[in-house]
Amino acid sequence: MSHKIALETPLMHAYGQFSHQQYRANSEVTRGELGFCVVIKELPLCSQLNIRGDAACQNFTSGIQQVLGIELPTEPGCWHFSAEHSLYWLGPDEWLLVSQGPSPDLEAKLRAALSGHISLVDVAGGQSILNLRGAAPALAILLKKSSVYDFGGWSDAVDGRGRCAQTTFAKASAVVANRPDGSFDLVVRRSLADYIGRWILDAGREFGCRIEG
Amino acid sequence: MTKTSQINRLSAHVCASARTDTSVIINFTYNGRALQGVAGDTLASALLANGVNVVGRSFKYGRPRGIVGHGAEEPNAIMQIGSGAATVPNLKATQVELYEGLESASVNGWPSVDFDLMSIAGWFSRLMPPGFYYKTFMYPAKLWMTYEHFIRKAAGLGRSPVEEDPDCYDKLNQHADVLVIGAGPAGLMAALEAAYAGARVIIVDEQAEFGGSLLASTQRIDGQTAAAWVDDTVAQLRTFSNLQMLPRSTAFGYYDHNFVGILERRSDHLGLCASAGSRQRMHRVRAKRVVLATGAFERPLVFSHNDIPGVMQASSVSTYVNRYGVAPGNQMLLFTCNDSAYQTALDWHRSGRTVVAIVDSRSTPNGEIMAAVAEQGIEVMLGHAVIEARGSKRVKSALVAPINAQGSRLVGAVTRIACDLIACSGGWSPAIHLSSHTGAKPQWDAAIVGFRPGSSLQQERSAGSCRGTYRLSDCLTEGADVGAQAAQLAGFGDAKRLFALPHIEEYGEHPQQALFLVPHTKRSSRAPSQFVDMQLDVTAGSIAIAVAEGFDSIEHVKRYTALGFGTDQGKLGNINGMAILAAALDQDIANVGTTIFRPAYTPTTFGAIAGRDIGGLFDPERHTAAHHWHVRQGAVFEDVGQWKRPWYFPRSTASGSVETIRAAVDRECLAVRNSVGILDASTLGKIDIQGPDAAEFVTRMYTNSYLKLAAGKCRYGVMLKEDGMIFDDGVCACLGDNHYLMFTTTGGAAGVLAWLELWQQTEWPELQVYFTSVTDHWSTATISGPNARRVLAKVCDDIDLDKNAFGFMDWRDCTVAGVGARVFRISFTGELSYEINVPAHYGRHVWETLMAAGEEFDITPYGTESMHVLRAEKGFIIVGQDTDGSMTPADMNMDWVVGRNKVFSFIGKRSLYRSDALRADRKQLVGLKTLRRSEILPEGAQIVFDPQQSIPMSMQGHVTSSYYSANLGHSIALAVIKGGLSRMGQVVHCPLADGRTLAAEIVSSVFYDPKGVRQHVA
Amino acid sequence: MLLIHCPHCREDREEEEFSYGGEAHIVRPLAPESLTDEAWGDYLFFRKNPRGIHHEMWYHGTGCRRYFYATRNTLTYAILETYCVGEKPLVSASIVSTAL
Description:
The complex is a heterotrimer of chains A (213), B (1018) and C (100).
Chain A: E1 18-19, E2 38-42, E3 47-52, H1 58-68, E4 78-81, E5 85-91, E6 94-99, H2 106-113, E7 119-122, E8 127-134, H3 136-146, E9 161-169, E10 172-178, E11 184-189, H4 193-203, E12 209-212
Parallel strand pairs in A: 2-12
Antiparallel strand pairs in A: 1-12, 2-8, 3-6, 3-7, 4-5, 4-9, 5-6, 8-11, 9-10, 10-11
Chain B: E1 21-30, E2 33-39, H1 43-49, E3 56-57, E4 64-65, E5 78-81, E6 88-92, E7 102-106, H2 119-123, H3 132-137, H4 144-155, E8 169-181, H5 185-196, E9 201-204, E10 220-221, E11 224-225, H6 226-238, E12 243-246, E13 249-255, E14 259-265, E15 280-292, E16 296-298, E17 311-313, H7 314-322, E18 331-336, H8 342-350, E19 354-360, H9 369-375, E20 380-382, E21 384-391, E22 395-402, E23 415-418, E24 421-425, E25 428-430, H10 433-437, E26 443-445, E27 450-452, E28 460-462, H11 472-489, E29 531-533, E30 538-539, H12 540-548, H13 554-561, H14 574-585, H15 589-592, H16 606-610, H17 627-632, E31 636-640, E32 643-648, H18 661-674, E33 677-680, E34 685-690, H19 694-701, E35 714-720, E36 726-736, E37 739-744, H20 749-763, E38 770-773, E39 778-784, H21 788-795, E40 811-816, E41 819-824, E42 833-839, H22 843-853, E43 860-861, H23 864-873, E44 923-930, E45 942-943, E46 957-965, E47 970-978, E48 987-991, E49 997-1003
Parallel strand pairs in B: 1-7, 8-9, 8-15, 9-12, 15-28, 17-24, 18-19, 18-24, 19-20, 33-43
Antiparallel strand pairs in B: 1-2, 3-4, 5-6, 5-7, 10-11, 13-14, 14-15, 16-25, 21-22, 22-23, 26-27, 29-30, 31-32, 33-39, 34-37, 34-38, 35-36, 36-37, 39-42, 40-41, 41-42, 44-47, 44-49, 45-46, 46-47, 48-49
Helix pairs in contact in B: 5-6, 5-11, 7-8, 8-9, 12-14, 18-23
Chain C: E1 3-6, E2 11-14, E3 19-23, H1 37-45, E4 53-59, E5 67-73, E6 79-84, H2 93-99
Antiparallel strand pairs in C: 1-2, 3-4, 4-5, 5-6
C-alpha cells in the first residue's frame, strides 16, 4: 500500500501572513509595497531530542561530545552549536538537541555512547523553531513586548556559542536563543505556534512584520 | 495672529520665558464653544487664556469651581475629552495637551456648569453633613440602585464609552540598572550621573517636556535661564546610548522588588485617532535601583469660600505666567505663609498686571526676597490673613484681617480688598506617593512642615523636593549624589559625582509658618465653608463634625468624610485635612499620622493594563495538528484548558439549515456504536518516563501497580493527592525496559508533570527517573466502533490486527498511512477502539487518510460532547466532572483500581483509611434514570429523598453528568448520592429552580454493554 | 511581583515564571500505615503560617522545571536566599531574631 505523505509544520498555515501599520483590510496597498522590519521564519523540520543526564558524569559529557562533536553546555543559559547540531541548556540535567536534516540513527548512536541513568526523547513533532530577525530597535522592542526576560543583558552570540533561556513568551513559553547574526531563535510548542505567530504579527504591526516558511 | 478670545494671553515680548508658540493657533471646543489656544498649551492654560472661570461643579454641593493647579494635583478641572468610541472621561485639563480639534466638556454640572440644579442643594449644605450618603441612602437597600443613578448623574463622574475601544495599547517589559522618576532638577542630575557611570538608565516624567519646576522658573543657572539649562542637560542626556528617556510617562505604582508600573501616553497629545501604533504603553520596569525625584505639591490655604474660581495655587499662577504666557486674572492678591510664593508676586508684576497686595500670615518675616518685592513697590501686609473670598463665579474681593503670631485667631478688624485672583501658598508637601507604595511610613518633619518619605523598604532613594529639599542648589546636589550612588549600588562607578554643579543665585529664606486652617470670625462649624478637599467637598467643618461624632483615626475620618477619595487622591487636601484633624483631637500631626498612599498615583486606563491580551489573544489557544481540518468541516469548538477541541461537527441538512447540537451528537453517537467514529484525542497529556526506577516511581504515583506490566501492555490508573482524593486518571503504557508513557487528562497535563517532578526532586531524589512532556509531539486519532479494525486494516499492513494477536490494552509500533505510528488498543467508548499516535507533523495526513479509508463505513468525526455521552453510557468517569477533589476511588465505585497489597504506601493510600474516608454516608457514584424517559436532569441538580419536605431540604447529592442517549433511547445521568451504592432501585427527586421536580431511579452507573463485550468484537 | 533568584538558572527571574510550592522541608512519614489518623492529619493538613521568616518551595515551571527552596520574609516579601533541594538554609527565624 503506498501513500503520498504530506508533512505539515506547525506554522505552515500562516506563511505569507503579515501585519503593517499602513495596512487596512480594505486598502489597496499590496504586500509588495510594504516594508517589513521584523520577519518570522519557521525553520525546516529537523530532528529534536530532549536529553537528560548527569552533567557531573564524565562519561555522559564526553559521550555527547564524541557523537555530536560539540561540547555539552553545562553553564546555565548557554547553547553550543555547529553547522549540524545545536545543544541548548534547559536545566541542570536537561538539554535540547536540534540537528539539521533527518538523522534517524542519532538517538541510537547516542544511546550506544552513553551509559548510566539518561533519558533521550524524540520531541521533533512537538515543537517548532522560529527565527526572528529584524532591525535592531524593532526586534529588541518586540522581545520586550513579548517576554519578561531581560534579553538586553545578554552578551552577543559568537560562532559556536550563544545565550538561551526558557521563559515566558506572550502568555505562553518558549526557549529563546541569540545567534551571531543578531537574530533570535524561538523554540515553541507546536500547539501554541499559531498563537505565538498571531501574537508576533500583532505586536510587530507598528514595525511591519511577516511570516515566512 | 488673532487673539479675539484669548483675553489673558500675554504677548511674547512680555513673557519671553514662555514655552508656548503664539504663532501657532490651535482650535478646540469647550462645552460646545469654539475657542483658540496656542502650541504648547495644556487645555487648562488655554481655558485660562480664554478667561474661562467655571470648569465644573462640585461633587456634593454643586458649587462652581475653577482651575486651581497646573498638574496632577488639579482637583476641579476634570474633563471629558472627545466623543464617541474614543472618548475619555475624567482627564485633568492641566494634563491634557492641546491639539487641533480637541473636544472637551466638563464632567460635572447637570444640566450645565453655568446653571447647575445641584447648586440648589448647596443652599441646603447644612443638611448634607459628612457621611450624608451613608446615612441617607443606606436604607432601604432596594432603593440604592435608584439613589446611585441619581448621585452619579448629579455628581458627574464622566462617561465611559460603551463602544469598543478603537485604540491599540501595549506593554513593554523593561529592565534598568537605575530608574529615575521625575525629570526636574534632581532627576535630571541623577540620570546624568548614573548614565555617565555606565548604568542602564531610564528616566521618566509625566510631562511632555523634561525640566519639571524649572520650566516655569525665572531663576538663572550658570548665568543662563533655567529653561536653557534644561535644554542643555537634556541634550547631554540624549548622547548616552545607555539612557532611555520617557516623557509623557507616569510612574503610577511602585511594587515589590523594585517593580514599577509606568504609563506612557504616546499619541494622546496628537488627538483621539485610532492609530496602528499604540495609544498608550505600559512599561513594566524592573530596576536594580530607583531614584524618586517626584517633586512637591504646593499646599492650599484653607479659608472660607476658598473654592471660588479665581482662588489658585501661587506656584500655578507663576507657571501659567512664566511657562504658558497666560495671566489668569488682572488684580492679584497673594496670600502666603512662606517666602517662596513671593516669587509669584514678582512674576505677576512683570507680566504687567496688578499685584494688589501680598498678605503674609507671618508677623516678622525677613527673607531676602522681601527686598526684591519692596523694590517693585508691592504692598505687603504682614501678620494678616485672607479669611474669606467673596464672589460667585469669580472672585470679586477678599476679606483680610490681622491674625496672631500662632495663626490661630483674628486680632483685629476685617477689611475688604477688591481683587479677581487670590494666589495662595501654604508651603509645600513632598510628593511621597511612590515612596508610600513601597510600604515606607511617611515621617512628619516640623522643620519643613510636611511629611518626608519614611525609611526605604526597597532599593530606592528620594532626592530633591520629594524629600523636603527645596533650595534649587540643594536639589541639584542631592540629585547628582543619589544618581551616582544608585549607579554604584547597581554595579557602576564609584558613587562620586562627576559633573560640576552649576552656580545659582538664590535668596536666603525666612522660615515658613505652619498654617493649616485660617481662622474666621466664626468657628469652623459656623463659618462659611472652608474647603479642604475640593473634589469631594470636604470642609474643615465636616472634619470637626466627624470628630464630634467620635471618629478619631485618620483612616476612619477619611472614609467618613471622603477626604482624599477623589480622582486627585487628595494631593492638595490631605495634609491640611490631617492637620485639622490633629488640631481637633488636640494631638500632634506626627501622632495622627498620614494615610498611606496606594497605587495608582493618577488614574490609569484599563486599555493599557490589558495591553495586547485582548480579543483573540486574550488567552493562548492551543491547536492540534488536525485543527485546520476541523475548522474546514465546520466544527463547533469547546475550550478544554487552553485547547480548542471540536465539540461537535454539525452537518448541513437537506433544507440548508445546520444541525442542532442534539441532532449532531445523536448522529455521532449512533455512528460510533453502529459503524465507526473518529475523535481527535491529541490533547491528552503525554509524559515520557525513563530510568531504572521508572516502574517503582509510577507505582508510587498510581493506586495500582506497574511493576509487572510487560512491554507492549497498558494499564488504566488513577492518581490521588496525598489526601486520598482522585486528582487525575489515564492509561500508562510500558514501552520497554525502564521506559513508560503516561497519559493524563487534557486539563491535567501540566499539573501532573509538576506533581511527578515534585515527588522525584524533593522527596525521592534517590529514585533514578526522568520525565519529559511529549504531549505536543504526538498527534492522536482515535477510531472507535465495530468497523474500527476494518478501517485500520486498510492503512496498516505491518502488524497482525487479530483481536488475540493485538488484544485489548495492548499497544504496537507499526506503520499507519506510511508513517511510523504507535497504536494503543484502549477504549473510552466501550467499543473496539484504536488510538493511533503519530508525530504531529504527520497528524493531518494520517487523519485525512483514515477519513478516506473509513469512507465506505461512513466514518463519522465526533467531538467532545459525543465522547462524553458515549463514556457516560459506559459509566466511565471524567475527572473534574464526576469528581471534584473530594472523591476517593471507593466513592467512584472504583475500588478495583486500588492495589491495597502494594508494598510501598502509594500517594494517598493512608488517607483511604482515615475515618472520614470510611464513612457509610459518603457520596457515591451511581446511575440515574429519569422516570419520564425523555426528561434530562440538569447537571449540578441537587438530589433529595423526599420532595415534600419543607425548605431548606436535606440535600443528599447532586447530578454530575447528564445526557440524552440516542443509543438507549432515553436520558442517562451520573450522580453522587450519599450511600448511593446501597440504594439501588430507590427513587430520588431533583427539585429545580423553575419549580419542577424531576424523579429518577438509582441504577448502575454502567448503562450500556455491562459485560464489556463490545470492545472485544471480532 | 517578586523577583526570584533561581539557583539552577543562576539568574534573577520574574515571578510569573514560577509557581508557589508551599512550605518546604516537610518530610513524608516513612510508614504512613503506622500513623494514627491524627498524626497523618497533621502531616497532611497543618502548615506553618509565620509572620516573618518562612522556608518555602518554588517551582521554576516556565524555566528549568526545577523545584528549589526560598527563605522569604512574609512581612516584607524580601527573599533572603534561595537554595537547592538537599541544601540547608543559611538564614533561619532564630538567626534573624537574634540579629535584630
